[in-house]
Write a structure and sequence with these properties.
With 147 residues, the protein is α+β, with helices and mostly antiparallel strands. Helices cover 37% and strands 18% of the residues.
Length: 147
C-alpha cells in the first residue's frame, strides 16, 4: 500500500478542478507514507509563499495522521496540543488544508493545499482526498480519537 505518482496526479487533478471551480488558485502537494513529496503543482496565480505551506500541510497531516484543521482546533491556547506548531523545525501547520490519505484504513500519505482561506483550502483538499479514496473525506478525525 502506497501513494504512487499516478495516485498523486489523480489527487492533484481533482483538487485542481475544485480550486478552479471555486475560482481560487492553489498550491497542491501530495506526500507518501514517510511524508516525502510525491508531487506538487502551483496553479497559475497561486501565491509563491504557499508552496512550502501546502507541502508542510501534507507533511503534518501524515506526520500525525490527522487533518490539519483538527490539529489546529486542538493546538489553541489551553488545548492538548498547544505549541505543537513549534515542533519539527517549524514544519507543522495548524490550519485547514491538510488531509491524510488512506488505503484499507491505513494512512499511506496526505494531501496539502494552500492559497485560499482555510475553508477554501479544506474544500480543495477534501476533493483531492476523495479522488484517492472516496471514504477519506468522510474520515476527518484521528483514528485514536485526537481531534
Amino acid at each position: 500500500m502506497m501513494v504512487t505518482l499516478s495516485d498523486a496526479r489523480r489527487v492533484i487533478a481533482a483538487a485542481e478542478a475544485k480550486a478552479a471551480e471555486i475560482g481560487q488558485p492553489c498550491n497542491i502537494a501530495v506526500v507518501d507514507e514517510g511524508g516525502n513529496l510525491v508531487s506538487h503543482i502551483r496553479m497559475d496565480g497561486a501565491w509563491l509563499g504557499s508552496i512550502d505551506i501546502s507541502i508542510n500541510k501534507a507533511f503534518t497531516a501524515r506526520a500525525f495522521d490527522i487533518t490539519t484543521k483538527d490539529l489546529g482546533d486542538n493546538s489553541q491556547p489551553g488545548q492538548q496540543f498547544y505549541g505543537i506548531h513549534n515542533s519539527n523545525d517549524g514544519r507543522i501547520m495548524i490550519f485547514a488544508g491538510g488531509i491524510p490519505l488512506r488505503q484499507k484504513g491505513r494512512v499511506v500519505g496526505a494531501v496539502g493545499v494552500s492559497g485560499g482561506s482555510g475553508e477554501q483550502d479544506q474544500s480543495v483538499a477534501e476533493a483531492g482526498a476523495a479522488a484517492f479514496d472516496p471514504r477519506s473525506a468522510q474520515r476527518k478525525r484521528h483514528p485514536k480519537g485526537l481531534g
